[in-house]
């Protein structure tokens, strides 16, 4: 049987490329210090897949949302920009997944405190909360839900199925300009933040339904 010379050549080239990649992977791994390897292990263990300089990473959010099938959770202060940018799409999104929105309770002292920290006039966050809440309630869609939380705000959370972004609140910096971590589902950090969100959502001492009397009169 005659050999296919082109096939043999292609196989040799493929084998060479594969060997080259394996060599470099081994070299990079071996060149790392023990401290580097330990850090890499911790990052993988806790599920951090990326560190973004700002929360405004719309292309990444859009790509993740296109693959979302069940869960969309978001937690922040007033989320005015989110509502203004995406609110008109909520009804369409809700055909594919449930949307849970946690906003700070407008009576929380954290509202005026955060206004001061971000350099805004007192009452801005409270007005944002009321406006965002009114928008969601007027949708009258059971798959788009909003609750007001009284828990101490320590982080913002955005979760789409098995991808999550979490970020801090800094003094004199708007939260949308702060860094945000990308976490993968099933990891330690992802699970802990999801537990944090669910606990606030489900505990009546930590959050409430703004549509319940007498809160309805605030809107």
Q: Please, could you describe this protein's structure?
A:
The chain is of the alpha+beta class. The chain has one domain (47-218): Endonuclease, Chain A. 46% of the residues lie in helices and 18% in strands. It contains eight helices and eight strands; from the N terminus they run ααβαβααβααββββαβ. Strands 1-7-6-5-2-3-4-8 form an eight-stranded mixed sheet, sandwiched between helices. The longest helix has 27 residues, at 5-31.
Output the keywords.
eight-stranded mixed beta sheet; globular
List the helices and strands and how they pair.
Blueprint (H helix, E strand, L loop, with lengths): L4 H27 L2 H13 L1 E5 L5 H9 L4 E5 L4 H7 L3 H4 L4 E7 L4 H10 L5 H16 L4 E6 L6 E5 L2 E5 L12 E5 L3 H15 L4 E2 L11
Parallel strand pairs: 2-3, 3-4
Antiparallel strand pairs: 1-7, 2-5, 4-8, 5-6, 6-7
């Amino acid at each position: 049987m005659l050999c296919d010379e082109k096939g043999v050549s292609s196989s040799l080239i493929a084998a060479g490329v594969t060997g080259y990649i394996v060599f470099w992977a081994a070299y990079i791994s071996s060149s790392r210090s023990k401290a580097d390897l330990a850090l890499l292990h911790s990052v993988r263990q806790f599920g951090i897949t990326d560190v973004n300089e700002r929360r405004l990473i719309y292309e990444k959010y859009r790509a993740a949302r296109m693959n979302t099938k069940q869960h969309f959770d978001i937690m922040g202060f007033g989320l005015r920009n989110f509502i203004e940018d995406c609110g008109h799409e909520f009804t369409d999104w809700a055909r594919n997944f449930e949307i849970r929105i946690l906003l700070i309770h407008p009576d929380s002292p954290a509202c005026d405190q955060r206004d001061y920290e971000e350099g805004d006039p007192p009452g801005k966050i409270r007005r944002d909360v009321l406006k965002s809440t009114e928008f969601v309630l007027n949708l009258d869609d059971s798959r788009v839900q909003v609750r007001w939380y009284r828990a101490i705000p320590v982080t913002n959370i955005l979760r789409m199925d098995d991808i999550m972004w979490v970020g801090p609140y800094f003094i004199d910096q708007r939260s949308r300009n702060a860094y945000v971590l990308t976490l993968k589902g099933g990891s330690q950090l992802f699970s802990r933040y999801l537990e944090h969100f669910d606990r606030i959502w489900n505990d009546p001492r930590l959050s409430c339904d703004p549509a319940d009397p007498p809160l309805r009169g605030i809107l």
